[in-house]
Amino acid sequence: MSIRNILPLLFVGMLAACNGPQPGSQITKSGLDRRNFQTIVDGDSTDLFTLGNSRGMEVCITNYGGRIVSLMVPDTAGEFRDVVLGFDHIDEYTAQPSSFGATVGRYANRIDKGRFLFDGDTIQLAANSGVHTIHGGYEGWQYKVFDAQQPNDSTLVLSYVSPDGEGGFPGEVRVDVSYAINPSNELVISYEVQTTEKTVINVTNHSFFNLSGDPGNNILDDVLYVNASQYTPLDTTLITTGEVLPVTGTPFDFTKAIPIGDGMARDSTHAQLQIAKGIDHNFVLNSGGNINELAARLYSPRSGITLEVYTNEPGIQVYTGNMLDGSRVGKSRIPYHKQAAVCLETQHFPDSPNKPEWPSTVLEPGATYKSICTYRFLAENGN
What is the set of active-site residues? Predict the structure, then answer.
């Protein structure tokens, strides 16, 4: 065969290797074995994709649920630590429903009783959280296999087409999620969604962060700042009441950086803490959708690692891992106990389809939903 005939075949092979599952072993910096993520789920191939930058930051993502499995960043001594909770085998994700590290949709967070009125019609979703629907229901995107393309070492694009009626939601919807690491040790997650019919959309990433790098430590000593002077309280079933209340004088006032545990200790008997067994609340960001304005900052005194969050979304859900109970055993065989991590989920407000006075989550045909979340990692010395 001539070299002219061979070259096209080589090019096709290179594309296949880049865009599809690849055989063989690859041990990541975080200690994951790629082979443990290469299987078939619901007829589609799953894999583990590794992103990195010139400074040694590493993010590992599986296309099963668009999940961040590990995230390695340097501490003040230059040692790399894995700062997200996750599992070292795909079976741990498929065997038991969870949102660890996942791309959550079609609608992140809760919808009251799984229903809402839409142009005079009642849309009924499957209830998967008591009487409510959470994170898209049983057919949420965290349980779907995304198509994957990795155009370079620092970028991954995941795509999924959600059929009309999936989970009870109207419209065929396509979502494209881009994960990109830049030289500033930022992980930028960008979402774009289009629909064939009028529908509702609210997408986020559900990573559990422990900036100490050791989930055996809880996050109560981690110092949190949230650029929000208001929050949306919950009823006893964890549905937003429709109120927007000031954080001043409450356990939800993180307008000045304070350890999470100290914030909650302001009033440990506060009804909202009792309802959620900690913090599991939407904060109304003062940034007003300005992607360049800091939304939240989390700092671990154990590692010196700081996480800054930027977003064009109006809200952020702060969840202090209240439902973790040690029954899930993660990477390095460490059980995940209560408050072993904190989630910082950029979003529209929970149950917005039932609260028309809040920022709309409606997506019309011909329009594109665009959401951006930037997680920026620093060490105490500013590196």
Answer: 206, 345
